Amino acid sequence: MKAQVQTHAVDRDDIQGLLRSGYGHHTEACFLLLRIKDREAARAWLLAAPVTSAAVSERPSGTDASAAAESLPETVLQVALSSEGLRALELADDIIEGFAAEFVSGMGGDANQTRRLGDVGASAPERWRWGTGPRVPHVLVLLYALPGHLDAWRHTIEHQCVAGFDSLACLETANAIDFEPFGFRDGISQPKLDWDRRHPARDQDQLTYSNLSCLGEFVLGYPDEYGDYTDRPLLDAGGDAQAALPRAEDAPDKADLGRNGSYLVLRQLQQDVQGFWKFLDSAAGGDPDQRERLAAAMVGRSLQGVPLVKSGDETDARDAATSKPDLNAFTYQADPQGLRCPRGAHIRRANPRNADLPAGTRGIVSRLIRTLGFDAEALQRDLVASTRFHRLLRRGRKYGAASLAESLAGPPGAEAGIHFICLGANLARQFEFVQNAWMTGTKFDGLTAESDPLLGPRLPAPDGTRTDGYSIPQSGGPDRCVAGLPQFVTVVGGAYFFLPGIRALRYLATAR
Amino acid sequence: MVMAPLAAGREASLRALLDTMNRAPGMADPDNAVLPFGAFARLHFARFVLLDDPTLVDIEAYGLQPPKTPLYFVFMGDCDGPATPLLADMAQRGAAGLRSLFAHCEGFDTSGDLLAWMLAHDAPVAANYVNWVGRSVLQIREESALQRALSARVVRTPLASGAEVQATRRALMTFVEQEKQAGRLTLTAPERTPLGWRVASLVNLVAVPLVGLIVLPVLIVLLPWFIYLLRTRETSDPEICPRPQTEALQALQELEDHEVSNQYTAIGTLKPGLFRRSLLSVLLVLVDYACRHVFTRGHLARVQTIHFARWVFLDGKRRVVFASNYDGGHQAYMDDFINKVGWGLNLLFSNGIGWPRTRWLILGGARIEQRFKRYQRRHQLPTQVWYKAYPGLALVDLKRNQRIREGLERAQMSDAQALAWLRLL
After folding, report:
1. Contact at 8 Å (CB) between A203 and A226?
2. Nearest CA of chain B to the CA of A384: how many Å?
3. Residues in B touching A385 (Cβ below 8 Å)
4. Which residues in chain B have their CB less than 8 angstroms from residue A469's CB?
């Protein structure tokens, strides 16, 4: 059935560039949260908005080509819409219902979702600055610029938007992107997308961890890791009389509103940088080396980004293009107990790097034994779901001080954090799963009662058990336990958006 | 599983009564006034559910009229030992509450014999899964207390030598002895498995393969015919996997994620005809056999997050109810199902109307992720009242605590074993 699906080449002109690149050269950025005040004017702007496509930013994130900076666009604009935004544009309800249920209900508006995401206590939506009630953004405009060009760019766009939109907020970012506010190198691990669609998109167990993801995991309208097409609104030909939209690959008589689009998760995460280092300092008894080791144990990487599971390895894999050590080429297979990298470390929770089936000897008998769960050792390593179905394409930017030193020297209470952004085709299986099962899950990989050392909400379990500890396995005795972690990260705003393909964006601006 | 049709017009009043038993949506208060679950020491999990099946109409896809079935009210419990003594105990100590609940059912005689009525309405379980056969509520609670005590006590510095490891272990053993003498810890010796149970288990262990052996020649002869029937059906059976209604989905989600474990109850109609009915009957016998004799030690194939699960036939094997208690969120549970035991789900559930298309009974089906996820949510029922005897504890905890206890009670350990034991704390 699936074999007969005709595959089309990927139309990069129709895909917003953010799916392909984090715009790392565009170190200046700000994100506009807008509410539609004049529908016609808003439509007119969306119809003509100067969106940069993936064809322009041909350089995938991660490749370090310092050359050819002059061929980059000076400024970049990307547009995404929330479900309330689609309603404000008067898109028909039955079309909106074709989007993912999580997108339709929004991030902060549903108590069940809030509980699932761990947005409770200090992070509860009632306390958010934006993202609930009349402060749910309709449209998100992401502006990026090469150094020195953002102010003018922002001015131009804000001027264009005055007629159609009220501004809810402008999320400014720090002009530095390599290190997150706590001081760690950031953005190292990213899934690689199969842009050329060479990887066969069919349902088959993967026995080794791979960083390559089917396009459909992140771009709607393409097959995902199951070989399936993720749910998205498909319109009868009558709904798209001008044939403005691409056709659906899996249903060629339908227009595909999702194709070349993605879901975008935006969360404003406020980070207590001084609190973080103060806590570590006291836990380390004031010893700076010890303090940094403890911080690394919580993250799973050193401040410079070297993964703990590999630190000290002589035979470091090197990135073919740059011959720098490849900080992303490792798994935890040789460290099941977490002796090198604690099992609860942030990067291990966020990306456990496992395959569909725990490793074992080759051969069909061994595989059958593992499939039926009769290999005790394999079972022990089988507590974490298969990673490839739960990847996030991160595109966040930090705000506040540009560096850790600046943050620590700054006045107490100066705000810093991340405007966390991730893209994905399946909100429930990707962002929400990772947030629920891996970040806030207190039993992750068989742990007793602790959530993510950085992001955890730290609220006691309903039965009163504390969840604010962090255990660091050591070979010579019981796990070392760091107790009483305060909450380091607070959610202060958030929303789900649809990052449409460019033809879909124009369709949304004209459909009625 | 006690099951009885609801009397006409009593639904709203029953729902209101059930709600009074909860302290959070769907989460039973162990001391609630109607039926204080916490008072029954052998009870692991329990639930009250109204089997309000929204998918009865699906049979119209086969050109058949949806059957007129009553709205059933169901009690399910998972307990140590046989069910009858528990029901008897409940009928005695929870009589008033149970009567007030079952008084909503058709033909319930408020002054009659409650236990006899419940036993008369006990629907047989077609297949039953227990994560760890023989692990009692008492054991779980005592071992959890032990783990907490030891974990708080142990000194968390690296140990230099095997001798130090052994000394640390011995000191902890002495500590536990003192705690036991002071009455702060109890470690009750496991009860002996009743002889009757062992004999029944042994008979089942031998009888099922024996019957299988006898009918095997017949099966081999019938195999081509079976394959023909299966494949023609698999390629033509309709898929019915629309998105669940938003309100229905929210009603389910409201009851979830209040605890490290969650409940799942689902209902569905079998595909019409003798073929599917007999196929599922045979398969459930085999699944029950496997759960009884093979998957008794912490995992159902690769899935290690299910505490208890059961399949029950309704309405003369025309419908099936599935119920389980699992660890983690719903999304994770479903992903486990798909990625770890999709073949097993297909084997059983593909006999239900509307299941995503399978190939050769085990391929496809649940692996068609989006359709499967819509299907299972649409067939899921809100569990009005749900009780768990050990909140906060997941199966990974139960297993680890059990190993701590076992290690504690072992007289001798090598240095490496002693260190591995300390590292559990």
Report:
1. yes
2. 9
3. 332, 335-336, 339
4. none
Q: Give CA torsion, residues A434, A438, A442, A443, to 10 deg.
A: 130
How many structural domains is chain A composed of?
Answer: 1
Show residues of chain A in contact with B364, CB under 8 Å: 203
| Structural domain includes residue A213 | yes
Q: How far apart are CA A461 and CA B12, in angstroms?
A: 33
* Pairing label, strands A139-145, A75-81: antiparallel
pLDDT of residue A463 exceeding 90: no
Q: How far apart are CA B129 and CA A177, in angstroms?
A: 51
Contact state of A372 with B301 under an 8 Å Cβ cutoff: yes
Give rounded-to-5 percent helix, strand, coil for chain A: 30, 20, 50
Q: Give the mean pLDDT of A251-272.
A: 95
How wide is the angle at C-alpha A247 spanned by C-alphas A245 and A250, nearest 5°? 145
In this structure, which amino acid lies at residue A400? G
Determine the structural domain holding residue A93 and report its residue range.
Answer: 2-264+495-510
Q: With a CB-CB cutoff of 8 Å, which residues 129-168 of chain B face chain A?
A: 151, 154, 156-160, 165, 168
- The CA dihedral of A420, A426, A429, A431, to the nearest 10 degrees, is 0
Q: How far is CA B64 from CA A157, A355, B57, B272, in A?
A: 60, 45, 9, 9
Cβ contacts of B127 within 8 Å, gap of 6 or more: B284, B285, B287, B288, B291, B310, B311
Angle separating helix axes B395-408 and B137-153, nearest 10 degrees? 70
Q: Residues with Cβ < 8 Å from B40, sequence gap 6 or more?
A: B79, B86, B89, B90, B93, B94
A85 in a structural domain = yes
Q: Does B243 touch chain A (CB under 8 A)?
A: yes
Contacts of B157 in chain A (CB under 8 A): 477
Contact in structure between A265 and A426 (CB atoms under 8 Å): no
Q: Smallest Cα–Cα separation from A330: which of A347, B186, A339? A: A347
Using CB atoms, which residue from B328, B396, B400 is nearest to A437? B328
Structure tokens at B77: 């419990």
Nearest residue to A66 via CA among A322, A447, A415, A351? A322
Query: Does A5 score more than 50 pLDDT?
Result: no
pLDDT per position as a tens digit, B2-49: 999 999 999 999 999 999 999 999 999 999 999 999 999 999 999 999
Question: Burial, A221: exposed, middle or buried (Cβ in 10 Å; 0-12, 13-18, 19+)?
Answer: buried
Residues of chain B with C-beta less than 8 angstroms from the C-beta of A228: 368-370
Alpha-carbon distance B335 to A203, whole Å?
14
B274-293 and B195-236 are packed helices; what angle lies between their axes, rounded to 10 degrees?
140
Of A104, A437, A476, Cβ closest to residue B158: A476
Residues 6+ positions from A452 with CB-CB distance below 8 Å: A344, A346, A349, A350, A438, A439, A440
Pair B6, B72: CB distance under 8 Å: yes
Q: What SS3 state is found at A100?
A: coil
Please give the average per-residue pLDDT across A338-362, as a whole number: 91
Which tens digit of pLDDT belongs to each residue from A264-319?
Answer: 999 999 999 999 999 999 999 999 999 999 999 999 999 999 999 986 655 555 65
Nearest one of A18, A334, A35, A19 to A164, comparing CA atoms = A35
Supply the pLDDT for residue A242. Answer: 82
Q: How high is the mean pLDDT of chain A?
A: 89
Residue of B158, B254, B367 lying closest to A474 (CB–CB): B158
Encode pLDDT of B352-362 as tens digits.
Answer: 999 999 999 99
Nearest to A23 by CA among A46, A67, A54: A54
Say how many C-beta atoms besides its own lie within 10 A of residue A322's C-beta: 12
Contact check, Cβ <8 Å, B301/A112: no
Work out the minimum CA distance from B295 to partner chain A, whole angstroms.
9
Residue A102 covered by a domain: yes
